[in-house]
Amino acid sequence: MNMIQAINSAMDVMMERDPDVVVMGEDVGYFGGVFRATAGLQAKYGKTRAFDTPITEIGIIGVAIGMGAYGLRPVPEIQFADYIYPALDQLVSEAARLRYRSAADFTAPITVRSPYGGGIFGGQTHSQSPEGIFTHVSGIKTVIPSTPYDAKGLLIAAIEDNDPTLFLEPKRIYNGPFDGHYDRPSKNWSAHPAGEVPTGYYKVPLGKAATVRTGEAVTILCYGTMVHVVASTAEEMGVDAEIIDLRTLVPLDIDAIEESVKKTGRCMIVHEATRTGGFGAELSALVQERCFYHLEAPIERVTGFDTPYPHSLEWAYFPGPVRIGTALQKILKD
Amino acid sequence: MTVDAPRSNLPPLSLHVPEPKFRPGDEADFSDVDVPPADAARRPDTADSADSFHDLAYGLVRVLDERGQAVGNWNPRLDAEAKRKMLRNMALVRAFDERMFRAQRQGKTSFYMKSTGEEAVSVAATMALASDDMCFPSYRQQGILITRGYSLVAMMNQIYSNKADPLQGRQLPIMYSAKDHGFFSISGNLATQYPQAVGWAMASAAKGDNRIAATWCGEGSTAEGDFHSAMTFATVYKAPVILNVVNNQWAISSFSGFAGAEATTFAARAIGYGIAGLRIDGNDALAVYAATQWAAERARTNQGPTLIEHFTYRAEGHSTSDDPTQYRSAGEPNAWPLGDPIRRLKDHLIALGEWDEERHVAQDLELAEMVKAAQKEAEKNGVLGHGMHQPFDSMFEGVFEETPWHLKEQCQQMLDEQKAAGL
């Protein structure tokens, strides 16, 4: 399966298992989603379980919270993460706080799916990585898969989880892993081991990172599309990097990070999102606090620049092989 | 090339900034407020198409006339017992408000909000709903909880943030939550409950349930984007929901003109969405009851949502942190042409021979004693002014279903800090 099929399969499996699971969003019903993630679900489960909504993100999330309060388990979709901002108040002030403020009288067991990230010439409003806005909010979980296998297992875990979860899907790798070489032919998931996805039910636990490659020279913390760009760059450079795919940003697998950095003595953080106040800053602070006496070099961050996401200059902006390679040389020299 | 000659004889543009009719020092005079006779409004069939509600969205549904008689098509013909219960509930809300306002002034809690003059909006509406219909209130519908028999002591425990507070001291006073009484957790963020109520109603319909949802917001909050989103969702899916707009003329210091009231009514907003809209006398408990009953029947029979504008007046300050004499005429509450909801229902019952002044005075005394006794009971659990009543580590519970490592660590850090400081 590619990642879209895996995500589709996760919703199919959960809708089959639990009559309270409903999917909703702009174009997700009859049409099956602009990325085809919900294709076939309306035909199989009916219009009251998979339906199209008006174009109002406030409404999509607000309504999902109300449905959750009733006892459903909604999986709303925001068409692009760049368009999640109108729903910020409902996500931050309501979904994330509902359990706490009502002392668990009410909860918001919703899973907000949204395609995110760049590398597709999406320009300013089809490329953003807003995860740092949400990791700053207490009460909401943030999950980002990097393979079809993880996407399905994590999405099933998120839907079953009783806390509100933001599930960001790296749309650059919907169809195949991307190594950052935009000028080479793109690959397909069928050639990748993680494209092997069971058709039935399974879970990948939230809050657990995956070590993509074990190594001794440097720990690289990354997630989403960057996992593949980092892995390929390290391989091309012949660097014995330990690559950790965080998978869940909140709650974070701090043990995996700490263990790895204490072993390698070096830590590099790579994400597409802009740098200042980004999730990399939190990672850097945590590593510095916990692994200070093991560090042999300053922590490096390779991130998007602090600019809006550009269109024509995308490949100068994107943390690709050139930018990651330069940072790797620097951190290994120190 | 631009041609500007034809414009040259026009006066310059001017920006219209609304201004209320009366400011401090002015004499309030509402004689220009159109108050149609109590029997003027027609009562349509609940199955009528939303596009036929123009007159009702711009009119004013009323039942109680100036002589205290219940008249017209909207008279819900409640028996005297039900009306006495309604009167009692409204009086209890007012007694509770008085007591808690004073408790705030005495430093027993940080904050309170009264609903004086708006008791009918919550009490009579709740009486017209089934007990398991779900309410998504704003912060000024304490009458829902009181009408549904929620414990006064529990409400006070919440207000005091004491050791028996059902919300464990996490919430600002009056932001109650009572799922078992069909009362959704109140949020400080305005109008967020509107789409949530629509979602709850959609879920009920999707599940083939027979329960409906009702929500309330002030006229000021209708300016929020959530209001528009909720109206759109409600009409698109014919959600079984009652959308109440409590037009009490004031949003803190901003008069209703800043929510658009100079140009139209709030009920008229329903027209553009294809939702049935009723504008009613919010100080007429029987009109509130009748309109809610009508809207509930419409919702329960799959005819879709109703917007009800309750035309009323916020008789007191916005909250204990507000001083209305700074922005409006002190005479406004008394000049308000629709009077006081408790007084009007009381006069009606007296006119029917089902009530009298002596019983009313006795009931007020009884309710005041009842509230006082509840307060005594609640204060045994502590008041806010006497410090923190919850275990320190409870602050970290319930952020998530299971407490993750980083919250456990922060909790330990706090406990260590407390210990090191000798606390």
Descriptive notes:
The complex is a heterodimer of chains A (334) and B (423). Chain A has 334 residues and is α/β, with parallel strands linked by helices. Chain A has 12 helices and 12 strands. In chain A, the strands form 3 sheets. Chain A has a 5-stranded mixed sheet with strand order 7-9-8-11-12, sandwiched between helices. In chain A, strands 4-6-5-10 form a 4-stranded mixed sheet. In chain A, strands 2-1-3 form a 3-stranded parallel sheet, sandwiched between helices. In chain A, strand 5, helix 7 and strand 6 form a beta-alpha-beta unit. The N and C termini of chain A lie far apart (42 Å). With 423 residues, chain B is an alpha/beta fold. Chain B is 37% helix and 8% strand. In chain B, strand 2, helix 7 and strand 3 form a beta-alpha-beta unit. Chain B is globular, with a radius of gyration of 23 Å. The mean pLDDT of chain B is 96. The chains are: A alpha/beta (334), B alpha/beta (423). Chains A and B meet through helix 3, helix 4 and helix 5 of A and helix 6 and helix 7 of B.
Compact overview of the structure:
Chain A has 334 residues and is α/β, with parallel strands linked by helices.
**Shape, per Cα inertia axes of chain A:** globular
Largest sheet of chain A: 5 strands, mixed
Q: What fraction, in percent, of the residue positions of chain A are helical? A: 25-40%
Question: Can you tell me the residue ranges of chain B where pLDDT is under 50 for at least 5 consecutive residues?
Answer: none
- What is the spatial order of strands in the main beta sheet of chain A? 7-9-8-11-12
Largest interface between protein chains, with number of residues from each side: A-B, 48 and 46 residues
Helix content of chain B: 25-40%
The overall pLDDT average of chain B reads 96
**How many E-type strands of chain B?**
7
- The dominant shape of chain B is globular
